[in-house]
Specification:
9 helices; alpha/beta; TIM Barrel; two-stranded antiparallel sheet; eight-stranded parallel β-sheet
Length: 228
């Protein structure tokens, strides 16, 4: 039996939350996606809290991805996740303090690994180094890993495939999932989840935000059914 990767819908474009995120979620709240999230910038915290509360009311699992690369900024992002009542914190450079904040507040922590820089993020480093770093993060208590697989400066498919096989924890492939070819690759590799944000706004999977969400969910589900 093969495992279906989960879609996490990100209300973001170029690693920034879109201004009309609330309206888009409201229109698409009955789509097939269970996981929803966005980035820590640029919405004001009160707007973020309002949107996350609405997502929770609709029975969704909520995600905050923090695109910051220092411990102080990561801690600030973790405290924001606490204020917003998020279920999952993705991103940041691993920190024991961030992990402690998440564990104390029932938040699943999935940090970046590798040499992450710029915004939109780019991932450098070696595959072996990232796997070793991920294992260390998990051993220290992180729930899983936020892997910027398709942002890798090397071979993304080799990275994602080896990473998922060799890291015994949930892996979310985040960023630049923008084609059915990449959906096929993810179905074959079977990470726990993947994110799509900008590609929905660019209509890489058809027309209409909600229709694209359902198309991706159906496509991934169909691939899993066929291969079982």
């Amino acid at each position: 039996m093969e495992r279906k990767p989960e879609l996490i819908v990100m209300l973001t474009y170029n690693d920034c939350t879109v201004e009309n995120a609330y309206e888009i979620f409201d229109r698409c709240r009955e789509s097939k996606a269970q996981y929803w999230g966005f980035k820590e910038k640029p919405l004001p915290p009160e707007e973020m809290k309002r949107l996350y509360a609405y997502m929770k009311e609709c029975g969704k699992t909520t995600v905050l991805e923090v695109v910051e690369y220092t411990e102080p900024e990561g801690i600030e992002g973790a405290m924001l996740a606490v204020e917003c009542g998020c279920d999952i914190l993705m991103g940041t450079v691993y920190s024991d303090r961030i992990n402690e904040i998440c564990r104390e507040n029932g938040i699943k922590y999935m940090p970046f690994v590798g040499d992450v820089y710029d915004r939109p993020s780019i991932l450098g480093g070696t595959i072996e180094g990232m796997i070793a770093e991920a294992r260390e993060c998990i051993s220290r208590g992180a729930y899983g890993i936020d892997l910027l697989g398709y942002r890798f400066t090397g071979d993304p498919v080799e990275l994602i495939s080896r990473f998922v096989k060799e890291v015994e924890a949930p892996v979310c492939v985040a960023g630049s999932v923008n084609s059915t070819k990449r959906l096929d690759e993810l179905c074959d590799i079977e990470p726990w989840a993947f994110t799509i944000g900008s590609a929905f706004f660019d209509e890489d999977f058809g027309s209409g935000f909600g229709a694209q969400i359902d198309m991706v969910c159906d496509y991934v589900g169909g691939r899993s059914t066929v291969k079982c």
